[in-house]
Amino acid sequence: MDKVISIEGVSFAYDHRPVLSDINLTVEPKDYMAVVGPNGGGKTTLLRLILGSLKAERGKVRVFGLPPAKARHMVGYVPQHGVFDPDFPVSALEVVLMGRLERRAFFPRYKREDYAAAQEAMGLLGVDNLGEYRYGDLSGGQKQRVLIARALVAKPKLLILDEPTASVDSRVEQDVYELLSRLNEEITILIVSHDLGFVSAYVNKVACLNQWLAVHKTEEITSEVLAGLYRSSVEMIQHRCAL
Amino acid sequence: MGEFFQALQQFSFMQNAVAAGILASLASGIIGTYVVVKRITFISGGIAHAVLGGMGVAYYLGADPLHGAIAAAVFSALLMGFVNLRAKQHEDTIMGALWAVGMAVGIIFMSLTPGYNVDLMSFLFGNILMVTDPVLRILLILDAAILLIVAVFYRQFMAVVFDEEQARLRGLPVDFLYMLLLCLIALTVVILMKIVGLILVIALLTLPAAIAGLYTSKLSRMMVAASLLSLGFTLAGLIASYHFNLPAGAVIVVLTGLGYLIALAAKRVHTHLLRRQSQSSVGVEQ
């Protein structure tokens, strides 16, 4: 089967300030991978390259063998839940339905199958009773689940999450990762995170990114690897390897 | 009050004024909602002021200033949109420049035009009592165009305004939709200009929507509420201005501003009471 993501020799710079240097990364089907690294290490840039909202200056990015912009319909993306204006007048259900939007979606009404898909995804995430609430009024964990439901509602083959557990408490964090583990039985998952935290207990590969990138199987992660990444000593958390 | 309604029955210019008020309220409620939730008041202000440039040129060439206004509004909307998409870093500086240069061009061309320039004041401050039948027809066409486009692209606009990245991921033509939205703002600015003038457009475009936003949790309801509020302020302003013999546009804007302040205060009190209530009972948060 085709590689889900293949990145070869990719470099990227903002105004001559290099952010990514000669990145090589392969994500296989059913991988559950975490990209970790310090803030400013290029995680968001890498993510944008994979989503096709940035173009690599050098090197090649392929998603399901296609240029990223052409593979978007197979990708579900979960942004950080805090980036949205809390006053925005939109209900949780409407947010989830946005995951079903298409180029030809004219006039205000969604189709019946769109509602059915939204209900199903929200049920899976345990937020089906929150549909009528304003998105901005939900708690951090609820917002996170609504956004995951939105990403799942179009049945993606690859799910990408940007800091899925930023500003949620550790119980919610664990819930989210366990949920993703279940989803991982069918789809490939890529998580971007600034700290290894709980994530290492669930994923099967960790890519360490700080301008340069190195991929490790989860059990290979040692405090030396992390110290090299963050250029300072990091306390090692114990691994419970999912592999 | 009675006098006003007598005048309304008697004079066609009063009927035109009310009709223009209704059309303007509809456009400002719907489009103002987008301006408020997307937080692009500054861009809208830039478009409004750049319109004067187009009117000045049209005036100089002997064309209908309203046509010039429409052309200039759409042109400046596209220009602002282009700047927004291409020059993120210096965006506000460039907007500010367009804002001022547009007005300056307008003033220069108007002063080059022989004859007297009484109309300059009515461009800047509007005159709802001078809406003629042909102007009313143009406003009607603009309103219909705005309503139709918003109905067709309602879901796509909402996605672009809420989360561009996701909209792009779903394959929506995000840049096109953003430009289209700016063009709708431009057309709305032209309509509102007839009522309150260029300088005051921003108030009528954003304040009713901002009030509606305090109390609604759905975009469509916010649009309806903003349109109704806008209509209320416009009619009340018209009646008050007739009664006290004051300029209508300014009275409408002052009333709208007052309404906004009252709504803000009421919201404060409301949240305060809610918080006290939830302290004494069990919280709703899971």
The second-level CATH architecture of one domain in chain A is 3-Layer(aba) Sandwich
Structural class of chain A: alpha/beta
Shape of chain A: globular
Overall mean pLDDT of chain B: 88
The gyration radius over C-alpha positions of chain B equals 20 Å
Q: Major sheet of chain B, described briefly?
A: none
Quick one: CATH superfamily of one domain in chain A? Answer: P-loop containing nucleotide triphosphate hydrolases
By DSSP (H or I, 4+ residues per run), the number of helices of chain A equals 6
Query: Class of one domain in chain A in CATH?
Result: Alpha Beta
For the largest beta-sheet of chain A, the strand count, sense and barrel status come to: 6 strands, mixed
Structural class of chain B: mainly alpha
Q: What is the H/E order of chain A?
A: EEEHEEHHHEHEEEH
Query: How far apart, in Å, are the first and last alpha carbons of chain B?
Result: 52 Å
CATH superfamily (homologous) name of chain B: ABC transporter involved in vitamin B12 uptake, BtuC
What's the total number of strands of chain B? 0
Using the coordinates above, name the CATH class of chain B. Answer: Mainly Alpha
Count structural domains of chain B.
Answer: 1
Written overview of the protein:
Chain A has 243 residues and is α/β, with parallel strands linked by helices. Chain A has a domain of 154 residues: P-loop containing nucleotide triphosphate hydrolases (Rossmann fold, 3-Layer(aba) Sandwich). Helices cover 26% and strands 24% of the residues of chain A. Chain A has 6 helices and 9 strands. In chain A, helix 3 crosses helix 4. The two termini of chain A are 20 Å apart. With 286 residues, chain B is mainly alpha-helical. Chain B contains 12 helices and no strands. In chain B, helix 3 crosses helix 4, helix 3 crosses helix 9 and helix 7 packs antiparallel against helix 9. The longest helix of chain B has 33 residues. Chains A and B meet through loops of A and helix 7, helix 8 and helix 11 of B.
